[in-house]
Sequence to fold (433 residues):
Amino acid sequence: MTPDSGERAAALLSALGCRGPAVVARAPGRANLLGEHTDYNGLPVLPFAIERDVLVAGCAATDGEIAVASTDARHPPRRYQAAGRIAPFPAGDWGNYAKASTQALLDAGVTLPPGGLALRVDGTIPVAAGVSSSSALVVALALAQLALAGVSLDPLALAELLARGERYVGVLSGGMDQAAILLGRPGHVLRLDFFPLRCRPVPVPAEAAFVVAHSLEDAAKSGRARGLYNQRVVECRLACAVLAERLQRPLEHLGEVPSGDVLDLLPDVRSRAEVMEDARLTDAEFARLVPATVTLADPDHFVLRRRVRHVLGEAARVVQAERALAAGDLPAVGRLLDASHASGAVDYESSTPAADALVGIAREGGALGARLMGAGFGGAVLALVERERTDALLATLDDRFYGPRGTGPQARFVAAPSAGASVARVDCPEGLC
Ligand code: NG1
Fold:
């Protein structure tokens, strides 16, 4: 728990008015030093948990339903039954994140209390900013439900379970966020590898500091960003299928592509019919890679070569950054951040003019490197800066980016690598039991 979270937890418990034992779960947001759009390709990332968090207080109910409420007025109360296949609320409804967490636990065979649960949420993570407020919500809700069910799961297994579970909301997400949130460690970034999930904490040199700066354009997965993100995921899957055909070997994801120059084997832009022919896919095989139920930005236009160039280059940058951190070479890490941003902007087309401008200002303001973080299409930039130059960087961002746009300092903050999620039992909230 952070210093302010005790008070926030007390307020949540008081609003719930639990008459028996209660729990409080905390899940932080995450930043990502390097490794964007690599996780779902089975390639590594270097994220860290931040101090901003989601708290969920909960206790048993008696009406047989899960009731979820939030201190955020944009998130009205929601109720649902926790049994079988839970039908989603309309797309974009915040309650689907709660249903996603419950469905994941049911799918894993967890038995939830039959009388239902009352859950109340409070968060300090900026929403739709690429710092994983949605995954923090899913993780905190899952930890609260598990604790109320008296079940504890291994964090790696839980991270994989919730990564799959979050796809309930219609996004083909990878596993970086849930793992970073559950496994975060103060003073460290996490080298995560996937399929299966593995985690290696990497110490961050003491003189390094990180600034998260919002581009002032939301990257809402409940809106436009969902189709753009899903499009990138299926483009990678289709590129992988084309490579499997060209190399005449089975490939499940781009992480299995043998080293060497494979880019020349890929066409750049393909229609659905062309890519099916290139990869010799049947309708059923295409539907497995590109499920008809997910929203895409453009279902008949797939960019292949440039997407793979970003993904493979980004994975190499993660490996180089881990080495540079171990050597204490922060300027080298900064250069890798800059290269990541350029690759995301040009090859992955996931940046925006506002994010490009913010990255440029951050560098001119003394950052060693800066890049758009998370899925992109809006959201926040991460800047790496020498600790002693942090205030100067913040002042430059305020003067040159936020001031002219009429926004105060709330849009940017210093993010320290912090502890991962936790859950505590409160045996007698406010002496009510
Ligand atoms: P954000 O920006 O937190 O939505 C998304 C995915 C990650 C990863 C990054 C891109 C979800 C929940 N998370 O992160 O798995 O693929 O984009 O690196 O969709």
In short: The CA atoms of residues 37 and 311 lie 7 Å apart.
